[in-house]
Each structure stands twice: as structure tokens, then as C-alpha cells.
Design a protein that fits this description.
It contains six helices and twelve strands. 35% of the residues are buried.
């Protein structure tokens, strides 16, 4: 697995990362979602450099230009619900892409622990297609692992790009230990050192789904 970290390189991505972390800016859910859209667009642009292109002749009003064009759009997969804003940003760039939606959630027990429950998936065939699997936070890594494994119920992708805006160190370690395939690239905005007992990333940004869409009642 190849790992690519885009943050902390003095690009506009760092500005957006600072804003989604800022507890005062977070009070505006519209701005929070807009920043996730824009971050998704940046990831899409960077990932596009790794896709296959062919040179096409395009007729202009004044002649013919030879331009590289994308051979095949990727399939965009996301984990509901927190992944939706970043997914929309990816979709704005890959605007003709097929889409895959995966429902996975934290189910808490009476002792306060939790497991990740896989519930639902809607997807086209993924055979021999490039898939971009996105979730804004990679904390324990288990949601991404479940999402990744779920993809293979719909076919065998040629390559999987996993995208997370903020990851924890233990989450990155978990993913690299449990997803051994060489045709996987992990894209990250920033890596934070710590997690809480409930597996929220520290310093992180809080609960991305709640910040984007409002508070929820945890499943028991």
C-alpha cells in the first residue's frame, strides 16, 4: 500500500484543514460542509494524476488540438453519513462517475464500548474499475476496513484509492496491517497522534457527521 499525505505542504488544503478544525468556524455547518466539498475536490485533482488518459483530437473553432482525456471515470464510494460532503466534492470533479454508498455505524454496548456495524450497500459492478473510497475521519480504521471489504461483494476493482481527511496514527497502522493489497493507495490530509477511549481523533475536529448534519442519537 502506498500512503500519500497532502497536508502540511503550505498549500490551500492547509487553510481548509485549519478551518474544519477550528471550533469557532465549526459553528457554521454550511461553511463546514463547503470546506469538506473543497477538500474533496483537491483530493480528486491529486488522484486524477494517477488515472489513465489517452490523447484525443478535439476540434476547436480554429483547428484541432490534441488533448489528454480520461479513459474511464472512477467509481466514487463513501461511508454514510459523514462521508457525503467530501463525496460531493469528489463528484464535482469526476462529474460522470458511478457512485457507491455504504452504511456503517458505531453500535455501543452497555459498558460504553462499540463495534462497527455494516448495514447496507448500493453499488454498481466494480469489476476492473478504479474505486475511490472516502470517509473524512480514519480513527480506529475499522470503518474503512469494513467498507473496503464490502467493495468485493460487487466485483474486483483494479485499484482502490482510500481517502481520509484526518487520520490517527493507530488508524493508519491498522489499515496498513489489515489491507495488504498492492493495488491500494491511502490518501490523507493530516495524521494526528492520539485518540480518545471512544476512538475520536485528538486533536482531530470532533464528529464530522454531527458538524455537517446535526447531532444524532447513538445506536445501542
Amino acid at each position: 500500500m502506498e500512503i500519500k499525505i497532502l497536508g502540511n505542504n503550505h498549500s490551500i488544503l492547509d487553510q481548509y484543514l485549519s478551518e474544519i478544525r477550528d471550533e469557532n468556524i465549526q459553528k457554521d455547518p454550511l461553511r463546514f460542509r463547503e470546506n469538506l466539498y473543497r477538500i474533496g475536490e483537491i483530493f480528486a485533482y491529486e488522484i486524477s494524476k494517477n488515472l489513465k488518459f489517452s490523447v484525443k483530437e478535439v476540434t476547436t473553432p480554429l483547428g484541432v488540438a490534441k488533448v489528454p482525456t480520461l479513459i474511464q471515470q472512477p467509481v466514487l464510494a463513501t461511508i454514510l453519513r459523514a462521508g457525503l460532503p467530501m463525496h460531493y466534492g469528489l463528484l464535482k470533479i469526476f462529474d460522470r462517475a458511478e457512485n457507491c454508498f455504504i452504511s456503517a455505524f458505531r453500535k455501543y454496548d452497555d459498558e460504553g464500548g462499540f463495534g462497527i456495524e455494516f448495514e447496507y450497500m448500493a453499488s454498481p459492478s466494480l469489476d476492473d474499475k478504479v474505486v475511490i473510497l472516502s470517509d473524512p475521519m480514519l480513527a480506529s480504521g475499522k470503518s474503512i476496513e469494513i467498507g473496503y471489504e464490502a467493495l468485493f461483494s460487487k466485483g474486483t476493482p483494479s485499484h482502490v484509492h482510500i481517502v481520509a481527511i484526518i487520520a490517527s496514527k493507530i488508524g493508519v497502522e491498522y489499515i496498513t496491517e489489515n489491507i495488504k493489497a498492492e493495488n491500494v493507495t491511502l490518501w490523507i490530509g493530516a495524521v494526528d497522534d492520539n485518540v480518545t477511549k471512544k476512538m475520536y481523533i485528538v486533536p482531530g475536529l470532533g464528529d464530522a457527521g454531527d458538524l455537517a448534519f446535526g447531532n444524532k442519537i447513538d445506536s445501542k
